[in-house]
Amino acid sequence: MAKQTSISSYLSKNFQSSFFTIFLPLFFIGSLVFIIKISALTASIQISFVEMMYLFGYNLPSILFYTLPISFLVAIVMTLLRLSNDNELMALFALGSNAKVILYRFYFIATLFSLILLILSLGLMPKTKQQFKAFKHQKASQAQININPSKLGQKFGDLFVYVKSKENATMKNIVIYKKDAALSDQLFIAKEANFKNENSIVTLTLKNGSGYTFSEDALKKINYESMKVYKNLNTEAFTYNNIVQYWVKQSLNPTKKSKIFFFIFASLIPLLALSLIAAFSIINPRYQKNYAYHVLAITTIGLYGIAIVLKTKGTPLMVLGFSALVLVLGFYLYRRLVLRFF
Fold first, then answer.
1. Cα torsion for 65, 121, 136, 49, to the nearest 10°?
2. 201: three-class secondary structure by DSSP
């Protein structure tokens, strides 16, 4: 028992050093991509540093989901090749261990990785994606009443708004344009305007101005002392779904109903690919050539290619079929290339 424990500890220690060598750079690159994506939001909404950290946290499960499987597979190859090239695996075999025992040790680690990936993809990612959308919706609603002077392209609902100057809460020389393809376009000009927000009902009050309604056939004008425009921010409130509701809703969407099969298959990649890449990573360096990294690249591309196919037209039967096919192929190659000799 002590011997088996020491072997497991020895293999785990070697795997950990290889894993973190690969995972940390990949995690940094993935984080950088999402930070750039988050920073792009500042072009339309104002975000503080603390809020940016919240947004990064919402994207953290996605970063982990896409970096963990690659890091695991590369770490397995690096670990087994290093132990093979240093003849440490040969020493373990000479002490009574065999290649089947070594594989089982790593299958325990692969199972933990697949469970983590399933929790991330089916549990945490739906929740954090909705939180990310809810945050953007809240900020967009707040931005609708945050009109800055001398800035083009600002909107209040479906109205384009331009303000020449602003004194405290009062806007001076405001121009509002509404484009309506079905009816006539509208243009409003006012000397003063201000916003008032009560229980998410925003009122834009225009004072001392003119309004124009124009089409290809006619032009109409009105003068007014005061005019009010209302916007209910709650009418477009974000609806949050729990995990079950989220996936049920996805299954009813023709374009997204197979999305769950992509996440399930991608989460199983550590389990499915282990024996396949281990078959080419456990070698005798004196007599065998190293094709492990070639097989790693082909296996990774192939498995993610299958996952993408499942994302568009997957079924439970296809997930089971592809999983069984990869497992059988991996065990066959491992038996033929490794177990016959070790």
1. -40
2. strand
pTM of the model: 0.75
Angle between helices 316-334 and 259-267 (to 10 degrees): 20
- Model confidence at 200, pLDDT cuts 50, 70, 90, reads low
Question: In this structure, what token pair is assigned to residue 24?
Answer: 């940390």
Q: Report the C-alpha gap between 209 and 176 in whole angstroms.
A: 11
Instruction: Please count the residues of the chain.
Output: 342
With a CB cutoff of 8 Å and minimum separation 6, the contacts of 127 are 243
- To which H or E segment does residue 161 belong? strand 159-167
The model's confidence at residue 146, banded by pLDDT at 50, 70 and 90, is low
Question: 332: which 2 tokens?
Answer: 């066959």
| pLDDT tens, residue by residue, 33-46 | 888 888 777 665 66
Determine the distance from the C-alpha atom of residue 57 to the mean position of all C-alpha atoms in its chain, rounded to a whole number: 11
d(CA 300, CA 72): 11
C-alpha to C-alpha distances, 36 to 129, 134, 246, nearest whole angstrom: 17, 20, 27
CA dihedral 30, 32, 33, 36 (to 10 degrees): 160
Nearest to 121 by CA among 74, 63, 72: 63
**Burial class of residue 90, CB neighbours in 10 A (0-12, 13-18, 19+):** middle
Query: How far is the C-alpha of 133 from the C-alpha of 236, rounded, in Å?
Result: 12
